[in-house]
Amino acid sequence: MKRLGNYEEILNKIKEEKYFLLYVSMNNCSICHADMPKVEKIANEKNFPSYHIEAPEIPEAVGQLSLFSVPVVILFYEGREIHRQAKIIDFEELNYRIEQIRENK
């Protein structure tokens, strides 16, 4: 999972990439650290572009993307958010949504 350092990079990904996954976490969140490898594994197995941000490092993203809790997984497709999971990640649902996107590419 590639790490993004500012909100501009997120906007560029939204504009440039047909689809991708954004994983949002915080350093002091144990659930975030436990879920990240699982999300990364799903993305890698599906050859799905994935990016990671630390919420406190990019406060503009927190406001613009309405990130009220962590961890958060957001799937973007053709410049729009099409799926979001926050706090409790349903990995089966995430896998299903990624498959849907890959079928439509």
Q: Please give the count of helices.
A: 4
Biggest sheet record: 5 strands, mixed
Beta strand %? 25-35%
H-E order: EHEHEHEEH
Q: Write down the overall geometry.
A: globular
Question: What's the average pLDDT?
Answer: 96
Q: How many strands in all?
A: 5
Tell me the span between the first and last alpha carbons. Answer: 21 Å
CA radius of gyration: 13 Å
In order across it, which strands form the biggest sheet? 1-3-2-4-5
Unreliable sequence segments: none
Helix content: 40-55%
Alpha-beta classification: alpha/beta
Which structural traits does this protein have?
5-stranded mixed sheet, alpha/beta, 105 residues
How do the helices and strands line up, and which of them pair or pack?
Blueprint lengths: L1 E2 L3 H10 L2 E7 L4 H16 L4 E5 L4 H6 L7 E6 L2 E7 L4 H14 L1
Kindly describe this structure.
With 105 residues, the protein is α/β, with parallel strands linked by helices. The protein is built from 4 helices and 5 strands; from the N terminus they run βαβαβαββα. A 5-stranded mixed sheet has the order 1-3-2-4-5, with helices on one face. α2 packs parallel to α4. The mean pLDDT is 96.
Summarize the entry for a quick read.
The chain has 105 residues and is α/β, with parallel strands linked by helices. The chain is built from four helices and five strands; from the N terminus they run βαβαβαββα.
